[in-house]
Amino acid sequence: MASIHIDQVSKIYDGGVHAVKAIDIEIGDGEFIVLVGPSGCGKSTLLRMVAGLETISEGTVRIDDHIVNQMEPADRDIAMVFQNYALYPHMTVYDNLAYGLKNRKTPKAEIEARVAEAARMLEIEPYLKRKPRALSGGQRQRVAMGRAIVRKPAAFLFDEPLSNLDAKLRVTMRGEIRRLQRRLGTTALYVTHDQLEAMTLADRLVVLNAGRIEQIGTPLEVYRNP
Ligand code: ADP
Ligand code: ADP
Hints:
Helices cover 35% and strands 27% of the residues. It is of the alpha/beta class. The mean pLDDT is 94. Helix 5 links the parallel strand 7 (155-159) and strand 8 (187-192). The chain binds adenosine-5'-diphosphate (2 copies). One adenosine-5'-diphosphate (ADP) binds at residues 51, 53, 73-74, 78-80, 86, 99-100, 103, 147, 151. This is Carbohydrate ABC transporter ATP-binding protein (CUT1 family). One of its GO terms (biological process) is glycerophosphodiester transmembrane transport. It is found in: Cell inner membrane. It is a peripheral membrane protein.
C-alpha cells in the first residue's frame, strides 16, 4: 500500500501541446481513484507520468515519501495494466507472470509461490503452459492482472484495461479487479473514458477536461453535481 501525491503536475509535449495543467491529487493508502473524461483530456498522460513512462514537465509526483520524478519505472514500486495486455507473445503464461520477478532476481521458490497464488486468485491455473495467442481476451487480461499482482506493488496503475473486451466481459472483469484490489489493499489509479465504469469502480472520481480537474469526489458527489 502507498499514498500517491500529485502536486502541481503539468505536461507540455515537445511541439507545445499542454496536455496536463497544474493538477493536484492526493491518493490515500488503499484508495481506488478513477481518472475519467473525454478522449484527449490528459488522463493517459497523467497516468504515464506517475508510472514514469513520460517525463514530468512541472510539479512533483511522490509515492509515500519518495519523489519519483527522476526514478525509472522499475524503481517505482508500481505495476501497470494496459489495454493491449502487453504480454510477451513468445512466452508461456507462467513465464509472463514470472518475468518481472526474474528480472528482480527473486529466488525461484518465491517466484513459483507467487505465480501459483496469482494464478489461483485469477483462476488461470489451467492456462499456465499456454502462449497468450491461445487465450481469449478475458483470459489475457487476467494474465495481465496476474503480472501486476505477483510483484506485490504498492500501487496498481490501470490504463483503460477493459476497453478491448466485449460489454459482458467488461462488467465481469470490472468486478474482479475491484474485488482483487480490495482483498490486496493495493492503492489504485485507473483511467477510463467510460463514465459507468468510473462510477462503479471509484472510491473517488477525478473528472478531467482539457488537462484540468473539472470535478473530484465520490461517485455520489460527482453524480449529484453534474
Ligand atoms: P486521454 O488519455 O485523456 O485520451 P492523452 O493524455 O492521451 O489524453 O492526450 C492529451 C493531449 O496530449 C492530447 O491533445 C493528445 O493529442 C496530446 N498527446 C498525447 N501524447 C502525445 C505525444 N506523445 N506527443 C504530443 N502530444 C501528445
Ligand atoms: P513487469 O513484467 O511486471 O511489467 P518489468 O520489470 O518488465 O515488470 O517492468 C518494470 C516497469 O516498466 C513496470 O513497473 C511498468 O511501469 C513498466 N512497464 C511494464 N510493462 C511495460 C510495457 N509493456 N510498456 C511500457 N512500460 C512497461
